[in-house]
Structure formats: structure tokens, C-alpha cells
Amino acid sequence: MPTRTSVFWKVTAHLFVAFLLCSTLLASAKQKPLTNDDIIKMTKAGLDEDVIVGTMQSNANAFDLSPDGLISLKKGGVSSKVLHTMQSLAKADKDSGPALVSASSPAAKAGSNKSNKKEKGTRSNDSLTNWKGPMMRLAVMDLTGSALKMQTATQPSISTTTIAIPPPADFARGMTEMLTTALTKSERFVVLERAALDKVTAEQDLGASGRVNPEFAPQVGKVTGAQAIITGDITRFSYTQSSLGGSGSILRGLGAKVEKTNAQVGIDLRIIDTETGEVLLSQSADGSASMSNVSATLTRGSHDFSSAVAENTPLGKATRQALERIVSAVTITMKSQRWSGRVMDVRGDHIYINAGTRLGLVTDVPLDVFRADATLTDPETGRRMGSPDKLIGSVVIDAVKEQYSVAKILNGSGLKRGDVVRLKGQQEEP
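Given the sequence above, the corresponding C-alpha cells read:
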């Protein structure tokens, strides 16, 4: 008959082995990248597109995006939206990861001029170890509020009174500022100053819709340096309070306790490429929240924006929920776009680039330099279709200031002001 001590140690040993096994399985599962089969399995399981996209964004991947791989995915029922996201993630990984590695690889060193071999051999790539890549420049236009004038009060019934709370003062402008702050805090974007935008929009009649004409986008980009414009409209707004007991409690005392407060906020947003005027994203996002027994002052004059969208109010929760979804959509879209800068000046064997620490640049970043040809325009519509360019040289950043960077010319000649710089390894525009 085994003693209690021996039984205890046997049980403990079994538990310890089970713990190690689970830990090993969890670790291996966490490290395993997503494959085409995983995407097909999630699709056949009926998971929503947004759920699949979110899973792809938060995990490493080893997708097969060859023609055969894409055909297999399509036959497996994978939607076009998911396929496009897979391609965007694969392209972003290729642009931001391997390009930086290749700059310090033997193959990249062999392609440099002999006069630069010694310098490149002594460079340290410590500054690139945790580098996230350059930040994109965005211009955020003021959101308009077509839905803010559509609030209508509901007549009280015998048992319930429901009234519409008017939107707070400057709600659309306040949401624009919240969107700007959220994009800046993501540390993936530099949102340009309002003064520069006001200078351009003063020349453009946006009308009641607040929609920036895509043909106007290149003009904004030229003046502000933005790579994309964000414009949008608050298309859904509902803020109501309800109370049981007819017209007594709410209508007699607007600061009284109420049974339930409901809020819904919806935004329609577009991202426009300033180079071509192409609409990169057209996205809708909604937020909603309900709370019981909320004490609120409903007088129009004192219903200001900051108190209305406080974190503990239904309107604040709904607004933040909608903005979080918009920021996520913007981040996904811009991740697949190529960063670029411009040569400001050439002095000796160095060039000066119009991007510095403010845009996330660091030393030792390898860049390619391109010469843009004349802009292509559609003869029927006059719309800008982009500019072909040719690879004319390569540089590596030596020093970085807040507003600009200094890069040493590794190869190429005749570089001049206005030439385009992009991360090394990216293709020419045909």
C-alpha cells in the first residue's frame, strides 16, 4: 500500500509534466505563422471578414500568394477583401523588413561602389534593430456633420418619455481633433498642421457635403507635403434619454435622474492619395452605447463638447468606439502604401532629404533615389494618373535632424533637387 507521501509526489510529478507539455504546445502555437489553410479554415467556419482580417494583422504569416495559391484561396471561399488584405500585409512586410536586412547583406555591399566598401563595412545597424519604418504624412480635413441637424424629439407616451438630446457645440470639429489625436498616438502617422490645410482649403469650396474632390488632392499634397488626405462626414447621430412615467420627470427637470440614455455615432470616411487622386479607402464605422440612471444636464447652452464626450458618458463611449474602428481601417490601408520623400539639395557627395526624426527616420537607413518623368493625365477627364520614374542612385542616411536628413551618395550621379527617395528595394514606377 503506497504511502500518502509517495502518492503526493507522483501526482505532483504528473502535474509538472502536464504543465511543461501545455507550455510547449502553447509556445509553438503562438510562434506558428498563419498559412493559406488557416485562412480557408476560418472562412469555411463562417467567421466574419473583419474577424479574419484582425487575426491576420495580429499574427505573423507565411502566405502563398502565387497564382496557384490565390486560385486555391478563391476556391476555398475566401473573399476579395481578405485576399487584398493578405496581399497588403505581404507587401508591407517585404517593403519594411527584407529591404533593411538586404542593405547590410553581402549582396548589397557587393553592389556598392568600391570607394564606399570600407565605410559600409564599418557602419553599425544598431539604430535599425527596433525601427518601425518611416511615418506617413496625413492631412485630416474637418469632418462635416450632415446627421447633426436631423435629431428629432419623440412625443411622450403614457408610460414612457423619450427626448432627443441636441448635439454638443462644435461636435464635428471636436471629433476631428479626437481623430487627429488618435492617429498621432498610433505612432504610425504625422498629421499635418491645420494652418497649412486652411491655406489650401480657402481656395476650394467644399460645399455642404465636405467631400474633397479627388482632383483637388494633388494640390493639397503639393502645398502640405501630405501623402494622403482624410475626409469624412458624421452621417449617423442619435442621442436620446428615456424615462418611465410619462412627461413628468424629464420635461420638468432636465437635470433629473433618467432610466436610460442611448447614443449612436456613425462616420463615413475616405482616404485620398495626393499623388493620383485615387480613393484608397471608403469606410463606414459606427459606435453605440447605453447606460442606465445617468444624470445629465440637457440645457442647450451648457451642453459643451468636452463634457458630452467624457469617458463615462454614452456619447463618449459611442464616439470613441467609432473612432477606434476608423483608426484601425486607416492603419491597415496606409500600411500597404509606399513611403517617399524628396531631395531638397545636393552638396558634394551628400543629399538633403525633406524628412527627419519627426517622420521617424534614423541613421543607417538605406534609400534608393528615383527620377520622376512627366505626370500622366487622362486626356478625357484631365485626372492625374501618376508619374513613371527611373532608379538613378542609392544613398544611406548619415545624420538626422528633426525636419530633414543627410544621406551619403553610394552610387549614381546627377542627383538633384526634387528627386524622389524611397526605402531600398522598391520597384520603379513603370
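The CA atoms of residues 230 and 271 lie 5 Å apart. Try to locate this feature in the C-alpha cell string yourself.
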